[in-house]
Specification:
Blueprint lengths: L6 E5 L9 E9 L2 E9 L7 H18 L5 E7 L10 H12 L2 E3 L13 E6 L6 E7 L8 E6 L8 E6 L7 H10 L1 H4 L5 H19 L3 E6 L9 H20 L2 H32 L4 H11 L14 H26 L24 H9 L13 H6 L3
Parallel strand pairs: 3-4
Antiparallel strand pairs: 1-2, 2-3, 4-6, 5-6, 7-8, 9-10
Amino acid sequence: MLKRSLDAEIYHTGTSYTSFEAIGVHLKVLSRDIYILVIYRPPSSSGINSMNTFMEEFSSCLEHYVIKPGSLMIAGDFNLHIDRSSDVSTINFLSLLEAFNLRQHVTQATHRAGHFLDLIISRNDDNGFLQSVNVHDSSMSDHFTVMCSLNIRKPYFQKKMVSSRKLKSVDFDAIKSCIKRSALLAHDPTNISQCVDLYNSELSRILDCHAPLTTRVVTIRPAAPWYNDEIKIEKKRRRQLERRWRASGLLSDRRRFTEQCRLVNQLLWSSRSRFYSKVVNENQSDQRKLFSTVDKLLHRTPDVIYPPHTNAEELARRFITFFANKISTIHQGLVQRCPNDAGYVDAPISSCTLTHFETVSVDDLLPLARRISKKSCDLDPVPAQLLTGCLD
């Protein structure tokens, strides 16, 4: 799980391993390459033959990573007793790391039995990358938490340009007055094209006057609408209890910290549950909103990835060309498949003609206009909600 602000991609070696599980990530942080490899070697592979297989496969895996430019960090549960310096497996493993110019940073037990099982490894000559490796007893597992600091700059939050209008603060009476004084009522267009052009231009001008389009840069921050002040206070209390326990080491302080962790987790779960239950109950008739909420909860909403392009107009033209060529290809294929002597059935000619139309009045249009959906697109001169608000 990665933040969207990180430029990251899964790195595959193209090889599957039987003695351990691995996942690699390639990070691009401000033009700097960072490779992170997470390893899990299950305890069941602790036999001699399994250890030999692990050494061979892990060596093959390292060959893919050590040649990559930039920094490298390998972390995970290796289930090796590195603390036993005379153990053959430990000697062979450390020799393998040395052969690849790597070093292991954990210097204290990471398991309740007193062994070094969880390791953090980096390049031997990359001294400024990995700093301050610490082991903490989180009291949640038989394994301790191994934490380290990486000397990299935190990526900035993503920013984007957004354009909007303050439609909620518009004065509908003032807009109605402008419409009455506009060319829409002063001129009488002679054809439908002139009427549509006048409608679009005048309404766009009036909209720009009362709700001008403003463009600004916004920072994209993580959204957590279910997060509240109670959770914030209890998380602060949890940090205080953790610091007290780290300083004293007393079992009583550890018990209070553990209880506070459970309380915070329960608050997070219940707050999320209440929020999404409310969303579901309030949108029972809105299937689109319900499916969108479910997709978000299940992380089934992938980002829309467009082909590389210099600007939006250039991308739109490429889409138009693609579909135009596709339609042309289909048409040519149908023509080639159709025999030249194929018979055609003449369509019957109707004797009915449309020679007279009744004039549409304002009273005829108002009921139709009031029932239109309040949806708009960039081609509309004014948003639908503004149009329906000025109908009377």
